[in-house]
Amino acid sequence: MIRFALAFICLSAPAFAETGVFVDPQLSISHGTFCAKITEGSVDAPDTVAGKIDLYERVPQIRWQGQLVPAHEVMSFGIVSKVPDGTVLDNVTITLTHPPFSESGATTQAYTTTLGGPNTSINAYSFDFPEEMVLGTWTFEATQGDRTLYRVSFEVVNPRQLPDMVSGCLDGNLLS
Fold first, then answer.
1. For residue 105, is pLDDT > 80?
2. Is 144 exposed, middle or buried (0-12, 13-18, 19+ CB in 10 A)?
3. How many folded domains does the chain comprise?
4. Phi first, then psi: what are they for 167, rounded to 5°?
5. Residues near 169 by Cβ (< 8 Å), separated by ≥ 6?
6. Burial of 80 (0-12, 13-18, 19+ CB in 10 A)
7. pLDDT, tens only, 115-145
8. Which residues contact 94 (CB under 8 A, 6 or more apart)?
9. Which CATH number is 153's domain given?
10. In a domain? residue 176
């Protein structure tokens, strides 16, 4: 199953620069990895494997900026976005593409949300089950109609490649 997370709170965030990253000039983003967090509920999302997305009470802080993610149950990764002028962007589709899951074969998941307004948003993924921990390129894309708001590709790797990140979440920071 899948746990997407979505939350709204004020934060500032830088934008662009890395390979595999596109950001519409209207938004600012940061992206990276953080320790898995306890969620505060969920909303239906029928085009995801789990059929729902989980919600955070507060936007988690990206602990490791960048695009490398260890495939481990203590890890979450995603994009924090803000529309600096406070414009509300309704009917935004978040699409996540990834290598095929080992059991379901799923390669694409999507849900509709709102970005912008006075708060910062996060669209993130947490590894809940072994079938989800597939190595390779995972891409988040936010679109509104035909307009791409952002696209960020992450590389999910064997956790042995990033032991400090995994141990940073195992050493008392998990689900905090």
1. yes
2. middle
3. 1
4. -65, -30
5. 35, 36, 72, 74, 75
6. buried
7. 999 989 999 999 988 999 999 999 999 999 9
8. 4, 110, 111, 112, 113, 123, 140, 141, 142
9. 2.60.40.2390
10. no
Cα separations in angstroms, 127 against 15, 64, 72, 92, 107: 25, 17, 7, 23, 15
Q: Which of 17, 31, 11, 13 is nearest to 141 (CA)?
A: 31
- Residue among 133, 131, 123, 139 nearest 166 (CA): 133
Q: What is the mean pLDDT of the chain?
A: 87
Rounded to whole angstroms, the Cα distance separating 78 from 139 reads 10
Flag whether 175 is in a domain.
Answer: no
Q: In this structure, are strands 52-55 and 3-9 parallel, antiparallel, or unpaired? A: parallel
CA distance 121 to 86: 12
Q: Which residues of 126-137 are buried (b: 16+ CB within 10 A; e: fewer)?
A: bbbbebbbbeee
User: What sign for the dihedral angle of Cα 70, 71, 74, 80?
Assistant: positive
Find tokens 């960048």 and name the residue: 66
| Residue 154 falls inside a structural domain | yes
Domain enclosing residue 109, as ranges: 3-170
pLDDT value of position 129: 86
- Residues 9-50: pLDDT tens digits? 333 333 334 578 999 999 999 999 999 988 888 999 999 998
Nearest to 146 by CA among 91, 109, 98, 99: 91
Question: So what's the pLDDT on residue 173?
Answer: 52
